[in-house]
Amino acid sequence: MKSFTKKTGDILNKWTYFIGAMLILALMAPVAVMSQSSPATVNLGTAGNFVILAQTGISTTGTTGITGDIGISPAAASFITGFGLIADATNAFSTSSLITGKAYAANYAVPTPTNMTTAVGDMQTAYTNAAGRTSPDFSELHTGDLTGKTLGRGLYKWSTGVSVGSGGVTISGSATDIWIFQVAGNLNLLSGAAVTLSGGAQAANIFWQVAGQVTLGTTAAMKGIILCQTAIAMNTGATLNGRALAQTAVTLDANAVTSPATVTGVENDFIPDQFTLSQNYPNPFNPSTRIQYSLQKAVQVSLKIYNVIGEEVATLVNGHQEPGNYSVLLSSNNEALALSSGVYFYRLEAGSFVSTRKLMLLK
Q: pTM of this prediction?
């Protein structure tokens, strides 16, 4: 009897130890959060023309590099500081050595004032739309501390602030998944924090709707569209692959800001053995067509549309991408593109690979 009791006790002790060990491992492991559904995207309207859009000011110190257009309204161009703006002959926009794109302001020549009023209105509409989404998939997740977590597609809601420490956060999903983060307080990425994308997730499909201030710490790496009701502040060396759309001001300090890719699909079941750019289909098209390309290895990718006189009219992709097969939807219904009927050229630059093809829009 004593022997039986001892064996039973030993077995219970072993099970207790095993269960305890499993609980400890579970608590130590990163938490993966996956949603069953993907919310509808947030329509940016003409605010999607801009990589930085603000109402009261855009300022920079240090060596900042911006890829995409910036704009301000109702404030005048004098509230865009640190860029050394050079007015175009038409006075409809300015250029800067710090901007691969153009700078627009409310006091520039027509049609810029009207366009800027529309863009700011669209920004506010997009903010209201994102903030008004109901039935979140996750509420008050991790009490707002996303450090070390993995977030799947879905609608997230916090009644206070959200922070990401130096351990970073991973956003995981496909190229067509959507993320909307509703933050009632401030959003803070601490120094060295990084938002990492996995599984094909695209920065263009991630929306950070923030009622308070957004602060990106020193060398922090942010991904996604920031829709901020107040200010966006980027500290020294912080980067943004996305858009900074602020209803007050955006301040920069030696930052890199690039507009997000608009990839609508990616298949990485196999790694292509070469770089390719396919003919768009259908062609001619109305209202939409698809452009497909393959990447043999991870590179910086640029896919742009040009008119027949060589002027750039749209940037579809601009960012670092992993090897795989990509598909980009080009739609003439996109108000941000404003394409008229005619012949255009699309050009892919992927590392040292460069290829150009012709497409035709018939309305």
A: 0.70
